[in-house]
Every structure is written in structure tokens, then in C-alpha cells.
Amino acid sequence: MKYFKFIIFIFVLSTVISCGGDNDICDNGEGTPRMKITFKRDNKISVVDSIKVSADLGTGIIDLGWKLKVDSVFVPLRVDDSPFTDIYVQTTTEEDPTKVRVNYTTKSIYVSPGCGVKRNYENVNSVLSAPNSLKSVEQGQNFIENEDKTNLFFNF
Description:
By secondary structure, the chain is mainly beta. Helix content is about 10%, strand content about 50%. Strands 1, 2, 5, 9 and 10 form a five-stranded mixed β-sheet that branches. A hairpin with a 2-residue loop joins strand 1 (about 35-40) and strand 2. The longest helix has 15 residues, at about 1-15. The protein is elongated.
């Protein structure tokens, strides 16, 4: 009986004390972030009636679909070793898409055993080619660590 109580005590103690840390589970949103793009008209944040966004993620152009009545969109970036992602934007079906090349340098950071490696993007800048309804691109925050801050402003 004495050994039985000792075994029960060890079992209860082992269930209370965990061997792993709480950071083994990736539950706080760590991972490769998306880039937030906000829309402006006349230097004020504005809602666009409709916008179609596509991105070249290295395996071809991925259509992110039409968005209606939005003031911002989130665009995933390439996770290979490419120093840029091409984004295509159009506001009507009649116009040709406007290409915006987003340039950056990447930096990989170890997060935890559960999450693995997170990729951060630094020195983010953009180049607009052949503007249509999208008149210009304005720089926001020039690094991407999370999705809270706007990285680019599209001026219509």
C-alpha cells in the first residue's frame, strides 16, 4: 500500500508539471505575415467600390478575387528566396491590371519548436508600372513583422 501511494503521488505530480513550455504550440499568430495595403483618394483613406487583386507567388499568378466596398486588403508575399513579389490590381473588368512590384529583403527568425521559422520582410519598397486607375503608390511602414500596420497605400 505504501508503494501504491507513492506511485499515485508521482502520477499526480507528473500530470501537474509539464515538461514542455507553453511556446511549443503556435497559437499567437506567428508565421509568415501578409502585407496590408490601404486605399487612398485625395490623400484620405477611402473605400473603393470594387477591386481585384492578384499576386505572382512564384508558382504563377494567384487570383485573390474581387473585393467590394473595402478600404484595405491583405496580400501574401512570396516565401521563396525571391527579392520581390508582383501584385496586379484592377478596379473594373474593362481595364488592364496595373502591376506593382514590391521589393524587399527577407530575414528568417526562429520562433519556437511548434512554430518553426518566421520570415520577416525588411526594406520594403514598391515600383508602379503602367498606372491606370491606380495613380501612385505611397510607402507606409517599410518592414513587415505582423499585419497590424499598413505597408503600402494605393492612391486612386
